[in-house]
Amino acid sequence: MQARDIAVQVPTVALGDSIAHAIQVMALGRLPGLIVIDGEQRPRTVLPGTQVLRLAVPPAYQDDPALTRAVDEAHADVFWHELRDRTVGDCLGAHPPRPTVVKASATLLELATLMARQRSPLVAVVDDTGLLAGAITLDRLLSALALARPDEG
Amino acid sequence: MSAVVALAIFVVAFFFIATERVDKVKVVLVAAGLMTVLGLTSGAEIFFSEHEGIDWNVIFLLLGMMVVVGVIKGTGLFEYLAIWAAKRSRGRPYRLLVMLMGITAVASPFLDNVTTIMLVAPVTVVVCNRLRIPAQPYLIAEVLASNIGGAATLIGDPPNIIIGSRAGLTFNDFLMHMTPIVVLVFVTFVVLSRWIFRKSFSYDERYVDEVMALDERKAITDPRLLVRCLVVLGLIIIGFSLHSVLHVEPSIVALIGAGVMLLVTNVEVGDVLKEVEWGVLVFFMGLFVMVAGLGHTGVIENIGTWAADSIGDNYFAAATSLVFGSAVLGAFFDNIPYTATMAPIVEGMAEGADPQTADALWWSFALGADFGGNGTAVAASANVVAIGIAARTGHPISFWQFTRYGIGITVLSTLMAWVYVALRYFS
């Protein structure tokens, strides 16, 4: 079985989309993460759900747990309001992480090792030209693996 | 011919480092590799000679202190102090500015400047956001204070570590010779900052309550960890200052301190090692090999001879050139590669002088290189880090906004350093 056999179409976001929109896309689509694409439909990065959440945390707090603890409850409840109109691109910075991608011909073993190594429950599938062809979620991969159990031959 | 090739490789590499067109670690690795493959260094000797290769004293001193700082970062001490300062100031901008500058200037001699800024800047942004005031003046003032404070000790600023190792200057030497002028410069900066940042001192008292709502006590979750960290840090500093008694190199003290710190705090070693800036360490190694290439092919010796011939017996002129020259060059290039390159040249200049005059040349060099770090937005790593934090948190600082303040402080501090050198060593 290859990546193309289990890939599905998922909603994506662009670098210019607001953080609020990105979270909305992920929540409404019940996705385990988000694929961020550029203007040519190429994946710029693939963010696991926790890293999408990280985008919503104001940068001053992201790497400073001690400062986070010092914030009073009233402000902590509305921390994401501080982001105002910041976009996905603003929060990712100039050097976003490389996208977690596979070619459509990748095997399930390749997919599984990539997801495990990158700690990403979402992988973008690209065609030979590098354009987004679909996505594979952790659920989708696990289902495919379960269906292909050798003892059920 | 080999000297020309070595110089060409060095100049091209320095260009890419200065312009940041390519990752500087890649640049030094390629340049160091070329130097070695082309036979421009002493071959495998680069791993064993501190003067003709990698100065491991510098590398391991940095590594040890990075581990120590990696543990201290997790204690919440700096967040506590910065929030406490903000609350004590009750939102009054000048008082807030002075207290934040004070924290960074006092921390910088013992921790590296980048770490100090990374710990204090986020709190500054949060406080400024709550007061609805721009954070830029505060962040700039903190960086300038950090670069000034870092000049005070052997471990406060990477140029000092390089100079200390090359010249055989101890932690106490730095305390006796650098700290007095650093204190003077810092006090002057604090006084002048009331005027320098005068346009940024308006605020609305209605928002002060939001600052007062921050609870600094929650920043520290493990007071025992904090106490242990401070005790170990204190012991490390005592170890540095007892160099003349114990004859243990600073790098060894830092490594032992790092080991003790890991042992007594029981933190996850893997977590702490993630805090080590391995890229910086590799950058230093490559840089040393690049400079070793210049030394091996005679470039450094030729420049040193030329410099020695030019100054003759006029060491005050040499000291003056070092203070101002280093400040100017250190301001436009990263002051770390500048110091690594110049250190062997200064060594050559100091060779013919009596020990006291030779030391005066080293102090002139250190003061110029350290204070030059404030000159522009790219002159020191702390400046770059602060500008990055400012951009990410929605308070962007442009190159010129930083440089406008930085150049003024660099001119002031360099002039004060020159007067200090003249009065203390040449009068």
Name some characteristics of this structure.
heterodimer, A: 153 residues, alpha/beta, CBS-domain, three-stranded mixed beta sheet, 9 helices, 18% strand, B: 427 residues, mainly alpha, 22 helices
Overview in brief:
The complex is a heterodimer of chains A (153) and B (427). Chain A is built from nine helices and six strands, in the order H-E-H-E-E-H-H-H-H-H-E-H-E-E-H.
Span between N and C termini of chain B? 44 Å
CATH topology of chain A: CBS-domain
Sheet of most strands of chain A: 3 strands, mixed
What shape does the CA trace of chain B take?
A: globular
Percentage of residues assigned to helices of chain B? over 70%
How many helical elements of chain B? 22
Q: Whole-number radius of gyration of chain B? A: 22 Å
Oligomer: heterodimer
CATH superfamily of chain A: CBS-domain
- Rounded average pLDDT of chain A: 90
Largest sheet of chain B, in brief, is:
none
Structural class of chain A: alpha/beta
Largest interface: A-B, 17 and 28 residues
